[in-house]
Amino acid sequence: MSVPAFHEVRFPTDLAFNSTGGPERQTEVVRLGSGREERNTRWAESRRRFDAGYGIRTLNDLHEVIVFFEERRGRLHGFRFRDPLDWKSCAPGGAPAPTDCYVATGDGATRTFQLVKVYGASSTRYTRTIAKPVAGTVRVAVDGAEKDDGADFTLDASTGIATFTSAATPANGAVVRAGFEFDVPVRFDTDRLEINLAAFEAGELPSVPLLEILP
After folding, report:
1. Which of 18, 132, 149, 189 could be joined to 55 by an S-S link, Cβ 3.0–4.6 Å?
2. Any idea where the domains of the chain sit in the sequence?
3. What percent of the residues of the chain are helix, what percent strand, and what percent coil, each to the nearest 5?
4. CA-closest candidate to residue 82, choices 155, 134, 128
5. How many degrees, rounded to 5, is the angle at CA 92 between CA 21 and CA 137?
6. What is the largest CA-CA distance in the chain?
7. Radius of gyration of the chain (CA)
8. Which ranges of 12-75 does DSSP label H, i.e. alpha helix?
9. Please, what sign has the CA dihedral across residues 130, 132, 134, 140?
10. Mean pLDDT, consecutive 10-residue segments, the chain of 215 residues?
11. How far apart, in whole angstroms, are the C-alpha atoms of residue 204 and residue 54?
12. Closest by CA position to 151, among listed 161, 165, 135
């Protein structure tokens, strides 16, 4: 029996950029007799769904997806996915800066910090855990001064945790911020790829559903 694992490999990026999907939330809406509503969120965090089938254009693309699906054993093993619209700490057209996202405030002793992406700037902002940053793209700043990757901190790209060296430990009250590129941890949301070659050649695309794995 295979044990579920996470494979630190990325779904083919050229196919991912033509996929559809995005964040999903679950809100419970109760309509009262007065006509008013009561709304309550059932999920504290959003979850992303994608359909990578829209990126498949050729038989070679289709074969590449089948190979990737078989290696992951269907829904069993997770993998990385590049969200075509949300894969940086900044807007898609920008370059990550070390001051993009507030991470935490130092206390003079804590050396490990989880990367996060912040959506919005008001009291209703949403903070999302980033567990799969792209190695080599992470930039970190403490009180606005950028730190050196390797000399001042190290990054675990499989968890999104940055660990400062003893000498570079953020001081009490120091603001830690970061910028980065990242992938979404996902799995296939099906154990069966149903492919009709006649329909594919006629322009009908197969469905390849993917579901975010929350950290």
Report:
1. 18
2. 1-85+185-215, 88-182
3. 15, 35, 50
4. 134
5. 110
6. 65
7. 20
8. 13-16, 59-71
9. positive
10. 88 93 93 88 92 91 94 97 96 96 98 96 91 98 98 98 98 98 98 85 83 92
11. 10
12. 165
